[in-house]
Amino acid sequence: MMSRALKYADSAAPQDGTRVGSPARSASGGVRVTLEGWKPGLNKVRLTQILRDGGNDLAAASRMTGDLLDGKSVTVRLRQFDTVPAAQVALSEIGVETVSA
Fold it and tell me: What is the DSSP string of 10-29?
């Protein structure tokens, strides 16, 4: 019987950080959008995650989420989206009121 340590030894190997079949995040410049307003039920955690996935650090993403909640407009580049309509759909689904280019 193989020991647990040996069975999972390969999982401890360093990873190269790329996904097979996925383009590198830097391969797309993403889209620049302006967010304005929010609907009741806005998923603040998911919004912050989307902002982080777009290339912002946690502090900046949290600040932008807070700014949106305070009624300010937020302009941001989101690298994970290739088109503005894709960003509009994703952000609208979580409760952002207006997403424009």
Answer: GGGSPP-S--TT---GGGS-
Structure tokens at 71: 């009624």
In terms of pTM, does the model score above 0.70? yes
Average pLDDT score over the chain: 83
Kindly state the tokens that stand for 54.
Answer: 């777009």
Neighbours of 76 (CB within 10 A): 20
β-partners of residue 77 are 32
Q: Give me 27's structure tokens.
A: 């391969």
What pLDDT is recorded for position 21?
Answer: 45
Q: How far apart, in whole angstroms, are the C-alpha atoms of residue 62 and residue 60? A: 5
Would you call 36 exposed, middle or buried from its count of C-beta atoms within 10 A (0-12, 13-18, 19+)? Answer: middle
What secondary structure letter does DSSP report for 54? T
Q: Is 100 helix (H, G, I), strand (E, B) or coil?
A: strand
